[in-house]
């Protein structure tokens, strides 16, 4: 990738994804809403100068500001437009030929006393070809006229954005008799003259007239849909207007999914400190490695020259020290974070918009399912939701979610609703797994809590620092973390009720159910009281963790979307463990979970429930309405899947090692995809190898999976060091972690102050 200005690529190259979606070369284009367009162009004056084609572009542009505008102006005259609410003026000036009149108008803006337009869009040629019947003399005069106008445009380009729109090709078969002389050969000659003359005298890079040549590429694909062979269809000129908006507004509005024309963000103070820390870790690790290597060479076995016998070293090779292991982990992590930064914050690699087709989603799904079935093995134990089975479940769900994200399938509502169930199933497992552990083990110690919190949050905290993103941006980790703490608080507060205590007295079971009912009541209250929820999470320091764009609404929405499913997971764990304790289920290898009759009935109802939910989800028409029902009904498909997977003994006795492998690193896969598989914070796709989409996905996926696996190992290694079992040592580490976050908060406050 040769690098360069993405604005240049946006104005000159790209391709269609499907029929209507334009993909610029190397960068992503943002789709501006009316409110965004107004905010960008507030107090601005925009001028379009040219013929009927420029008039078309003018109308498409002002419709981005006000969609209610109708094309009712004078055809061969000036057309003004003003949005008084945002003080925006957009004018179309009718100058169908590049001549003295056009030059005089442009010259008037170069005078110091006159207010200059902020954006000037110029283009004309077809009238000159038509009026002069395509003569060579007209082309020669066109060159003379552009030569006289070019210095004026370059002078304006110092303080304004000036665009010269090249002429689009025509569809010659559809042209009327009066326009037959307008041929693509003539248009190419006029365009060539304009490109050669413009900017030829300018040595100042700021005084450059931007050549809007991308319209030609768009027209080559769509001109055959033109109504008269000369003017572009509406969808094509709307694309041109959106490109123009991106060129000017991206550097002002800085949309996440608009990487074209956006400058690389400067390094923050915290990012610089992180860079220094990782650099020192790499240097420190290399120094320690060299010292150990030299010691090993000195103590290496050698041959006694006199006796001819081998001498053994006096000192054995020492074990890896905690410091070396720590530096080794941070060394690897530093290299990985450098890759993260280069992929999604630097301008080194390309980014492209997503484009959904049914085949781009369903074909990979079928492929991974076949692979998963191929790698089927026997389980070590045959209990319901055993470790291998839950890893498998997490694995295939994670792979489906990844395909969903890279294919842009969120635009297809039935797929979106099914993916919502998969996210809910992750949270269901959170409720099931943590409740089972606390209920059976009765271990409410600080060590357990710290281990879980560290493993969940380590990668996200590092990414918040390196990628300059708030904690809530990686919404799933805050969600799982909060639910873990809710489960812990529910079971740990007095009276602590665990399985061992409840077995001695059945009344304790009712005490636990009472706790669960209280939890359900609190969830219900908070889900329907947005004000109370926001007050709780608006207190410092919670607000620092859960605010996004200055408020906690996004956090409330995410929490509310799956508010009951963790409770369902806890309740399912309680019922299952009670049935297991009273030997009401059979978990032997190959045995059905219940008696044959009960198993068959439950299996039948489970399949019907599973399919019924899928039919309902597939018939969804309104995302908001379906999201309202989702928290209450998602458990139906989750429970149906668990029963289908576990009732038949032969199904419960096998698992897919392929899916289970991915399941063990599912959290890392979910988080890493934000920056090194997708791009622009999940809004686009990372392009390592331009021009070969399939090969690019294979290479980026391989790197992405390897990185996620490596981070999982680093997290596990660091967890042993940072969270030791010894309570006094753990307390010291917790004080250090507290100091770290205090320092982070201090530097964050300094950053915010400098930004403001």
From TrEMBL:
<keyword id="KW-1133">Transmembrane helix</keyword>
<feature type="transmembrane region" description="Helical">
    <location>
        <begin position="355"/>
        <end position="375"/>
    </location>
</feature>
<comment type="similarity">
    <text>Belongs to the PC-esterase family. CASD1 subfamily.</text>
</comment>
<dbReference type="Pfam" id="PF24536">
    <property type="entry name" value="NXPE4_C"/>
</dbReference>
<feature type="transmembrane region" description="Helical">
    <location>
        <begin position="452"/>
        <end position="468"/>
    </location>
</feature>
<feature type="transmembrane region" description="Helical">
    <location>
        <begin position="269"/>
        <end position="291"/>
    </location>
</feature>
<dbReference type="GO" id="GO:0005975">
    <property type="term" value="P:carbohydrate metabolic process"/>
</dbReference>
<feature type="transmembrane region" description="Helical">
    <location>
        <begin position="506"/>
        <end position="526"/>
    </location>
</feature>
<dbReference type="GO" id="GO:0047186">
    <property type="term" value="F:N-acetylneuraminate 9-O-acetyltransferase activity"/>
</dbReference>
<protein>
    <recommendedName>
        <fullName>N-acetylneuraminate (7)9-O-acetyltransferase</fullName>
        <ecNumber>2.3.1.45</ecNumber>
    </recommendedName>
</protein>
<keyword id="KW-0472">Membrane</keyword>
<feature type="domain" description="NXPE C-terminal">
    <location>
        <begin position="22"/>
        <end position="72"/>
    </location>
</feature>
<dbReference type="InterPro" id="IPR012419">
    <property type="entry name" value="Cas1_AcylTrans_dom"/>
</dbReference>
<keyword id="KW-0325">Glycoprotein</keyword>
<feature type="transmembrane region" description="Helical">
    <location>
        <begin position="474"/>
        <end position="494"/>
    </location>
</feature>
<feature type="transmembrane region" description="Helical">
    <location>
        <begin position="730"/>
        <end position="750"/>
    </location>
</feature>
<feature type="transmembrane region" description="Helical">
    <location>
        <begin position="325"/>
        <end position="343"/>
    </location>
</feature>
<feature type="transmembrane region" description="Helical">
    <location>
        <begin position="561"/>
        <end position="579"/>
    </location>
</feature>
<feature type="transmembrane region" description="Helical">
    <location>
        <begin position="396"/>
        <end position="417"/>
    </location>
</feature>
<keyword id="KW-0812">Transmembrane</keyword>
<dbReference type="GO" id="GO:0000139">
    <property type="term" value="C:Golgi membrane"/>
</dbReference>
<keyword id="KW-0012">Acyltransferase</keyword>
<feature type="transmembrane region" description="Helical">
    <location>
        <begin position="659"/>
        <end position="679"/>
    </location>
</feature>
<feature type="domain" description="Cas1p 10 TM acyl transferase">
    <location>
        <begin position="253"/>
        <end position="734"/>
    </location>
</feature>
<feature type="transmembrane region" description="Helical">
    <location>
        <begin position="600"/>
        <end position="617"/>
    </location>
</feature>
<keyword id="KW-0808">Transferase</keyword>
<dbReference type="Pfam" id="PF07779">
    <property type="entry name" value="Cas1_AcylT"/>
</dbReference>
<keyword id="KW-0333">Golgi apparatus</keyword>
<dbReference type="InterPro" id="IPR057106">
    <property type="entry name" value="NXPE4_C"/>
</dbReference>
<feature type="transmembrane region" description="Helical">
    <location>
        <begin position="685"/>
        <end position="709"/>
    </location>
</feature>
């Amino acid at each position: 990738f040769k690098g360069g200005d993405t604005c240049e690529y946006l104005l000159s190259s790209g391709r269609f994804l499907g029929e209507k979606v334009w993909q610029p070369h190397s960068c992503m284009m943002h789709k501006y809403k009316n409110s965004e367009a107004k905010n960008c162009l507030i107090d601005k004056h925009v001028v379009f100068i040219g013929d009927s084609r420029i008039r078309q572009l003018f109308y498409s542009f002002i419709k981005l500001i006000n969609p209610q505008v109708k094309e009712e102006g004078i055809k061969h005259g000036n057309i003004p437009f003003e949005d008084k609410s945002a003080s925006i003026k957009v004018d179309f000036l009718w100058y169908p030929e590049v001549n003295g009149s056009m030059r005089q108008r442009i010259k008037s803006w170069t005078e110091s006393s006159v207010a200059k337009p902020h954006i000037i869009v110029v283009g004309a040629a077809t009238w000159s070809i038509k009026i002069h019947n395509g003569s060579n003399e007209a082309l020669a005069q066109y060159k003379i006229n552009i030569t006289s106008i070019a210095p004026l445009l370059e002078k304006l380009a110092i303080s304004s954005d000036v665009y010269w729109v090249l002429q689009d090709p025509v569809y010659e078969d559809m042209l009327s008799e009066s326009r037959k002389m307008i041929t693509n050969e003539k248009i190419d000659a006029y365009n060539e003259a304009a490109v050669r003359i413009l900017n030829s005298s300018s040595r100042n890079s700021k005084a450059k007239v931007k050549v809007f040549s991308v319209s030609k590429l768009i027209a080559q694909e769509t001109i055959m849909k033109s109504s008269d062979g000369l003017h572009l269809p509406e969808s094509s000129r709307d694309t041109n207007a959106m490109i123009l908006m991106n060129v000017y507004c991206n550097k002002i509005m800085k949309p996440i999914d608009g990487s074209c024309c956006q400058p690389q963000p400067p390094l923050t103070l915290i990012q610089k400190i992180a860079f220094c820390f990782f650099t020192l870790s790499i240097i420190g690790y290399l120094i320690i490695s060299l010292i150990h290597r030299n010691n090993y060479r000195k103590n290496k076995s050698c041959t006694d020259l006199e006796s001819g016998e081998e001498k053994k070293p006096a000192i054995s090779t020492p074990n890896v020290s905690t410091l070396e292991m720590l530096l080794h982990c941070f060394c690897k992590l530093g290299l990985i974070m450098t890759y993260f930064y280069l992929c999604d914050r630097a301008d080194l690699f390309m980014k492209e918009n997503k484009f959904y087709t049914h085949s781009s989603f369903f074909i990979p799904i079928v492929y991974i399912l076949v692979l998963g079935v191929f790698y089927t093995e026997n389980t070590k134990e045959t209990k319901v939701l055993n470790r291998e089975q839950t890893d498998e479940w997490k694995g295939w769900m994670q792979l489906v979610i990844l395909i969903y994200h890279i294919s842009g399938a969120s635009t297809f509502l039935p797929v979106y609703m099914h993916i919502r169930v998969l996210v809910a199933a992750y949270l269901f497992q959170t409720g099931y797994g943590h409740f089972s552990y606390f209920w059976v083990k009765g271990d409410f110690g600080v060590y357990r809590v710290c281990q879980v919190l560290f493993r969940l949050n380590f990668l996200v905290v590092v990414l918040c620092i390196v990628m300059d993103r708030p904690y809530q941006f990686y919404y799933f980790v805050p969600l799982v973390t909060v639910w873990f703490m809710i489960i812990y608080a529910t079971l740990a507060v007095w009276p602590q009720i665990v399985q061992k205590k409840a077995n001695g007295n059945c009344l304790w079971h009712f005490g636990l159910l009472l706790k669960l009912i209280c939890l359900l009541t609190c969830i219900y209250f908070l889900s329907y009281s947005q004000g109370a929820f926001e007050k709780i999470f608006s207190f410092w320091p919670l607000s620092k963790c859960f605010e996004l764009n200055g408020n906690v609404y996004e956090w409330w929405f995410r929490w509310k979307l799956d508010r009951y499913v963790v409770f369902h997971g806890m309740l399912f764990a309680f019922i299952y463990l009670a049935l297991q304790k009273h030997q009401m289920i059979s978990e032997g290898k190959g045995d059905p979970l219940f008696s044959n009759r009960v198993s068959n009935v439950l299996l039948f109802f489970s399949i019907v429930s599973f399919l019924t939910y899928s039919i309902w989800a597939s018939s969804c028409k309104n995302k908001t309405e379906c999201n309202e029902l989702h928290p209450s009904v998602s458990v139906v498909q989750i429970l149906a899947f668990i029963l289908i997977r576990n009732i038949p003994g032969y199904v419960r006795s096998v698992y897919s090692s392929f899916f289970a492998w991915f399941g063990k690193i599912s959290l890392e896969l979910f988080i890493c995809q934000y920056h090194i598989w997708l791009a622009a914070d999940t809004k686009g796709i990372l392009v390592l190898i331009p021009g070969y989409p399939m090969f690019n996905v294979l290479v980026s996926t391989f790197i992405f999976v390897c990185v996620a696996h490596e981070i999982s190992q680093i997290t596990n290694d660091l967890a042993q060091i940072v969270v030791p079992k010894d309570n006094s040592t753990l307390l010291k580490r917790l004080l250090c972690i507290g100091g770290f976050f205090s320092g982070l908060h201090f530097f964050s406050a300094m950053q915010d102050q400098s930004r403001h």
